Amino acid sequence: MPRPPGHGPDFEVRRQKIIDTAAELFALQGYAATSVNDLGRAVGLAKGALYYYIGSKENLLIEIQSRVMAPLLARARQIAAVDTDPLLRLRLLSESLLTIIFHRLDHIWVYEHDYRSLSGKELEILLGQRADFEHLITGLLTEAADQGSFRLAEPRLATLQFLNLHNHTYQWVKPGGRWDPAYLSREYCATLFRGFGASDSDLRDVEDRAATFGRDRPELPLDPEAAWEPAPVAG
């Protein structure tokens, strides 16, 4: 929701906190079961004041979805455009997706469970974003197959395999536990890439280059919510 005229940074900070609290409540209770009064009590606002910040309960759901999908899709497009081979770009995109899952578990839960509560244009936009993200993955998988790294009978099925392995992580992962996004991405991609016919040497190489990318390109973080900085100009 665009910031209403005359509202400064404090308004936006408060609004974002309300969105995050709503994500926690929706993940715990369900979108349909959570009333506006429940949310108002959680953030210490009467219904009228709450609507001043959020517009409507449905708009909150849109904001929660956007909190995940907007930065993820933007980062996925940036990664897909990096001038390197498709295996490395898939590996980087995998870690980027897992990073936002770790950081926004409540939002991801709502995103996966309650998006069908949207309707009309809002649902159409969300489904379009999902389709755009899937198209980027399919493009990288197809490119890897065209270069001989993968043997894919059906790129669409390979895309669903990629998504299924990653997208259910939110159901069991524990941030701060023994497995971080980089570790899970390494293991997930090893499973997928072997299944798609990549060689052991390709697997070792892509992990070496993923580590090098993270070390040598700190201005290009994989976290979708962190900004990519312009490449430094050589002096």
The gist of it:
With 235 residues, this protein is mainly α. It has ten helices and no strands.
Question: Helical content, roughly?
Answer: 55-70%
Radius of gyration: 20 Å
Number of strands: 0
Q: Characterize the overall form.
A: elongated
Structural class: mainly alpha
First-to-last CA distance = 43 Å
Q: Profile the largest sheet.
A: none
Mean pLDDT: 90
Question: Mind explaining what this structure looks like?
Answer:
This protein is an all-alpha fold. Helix content is 69%, strand content 0%. The protein has ten helices and no strands. The radius of gyration is 20 Å and the shape is elongated. It starts with 8 loop residues before the first helix and ends in a 19-residue tail after the last helix.
Which terms would index this structure?
235 residues, mainly alpha, 10 helices, disordered N terminus
Task: Detail the topology: elements first, then pairings.
Blueprint: H1 9-29, H2 36-43, H3 47-54, H4 57-80, H5 86-103, H6 105-114, H7 120-146, H8 155-167, H9 181-195, H10 200-216
Helix pairs in contact: 1-2, 1-4, 1-6, 4-5, 4-6, 4-7, 5-7, 5-9, 5-10, 7-8
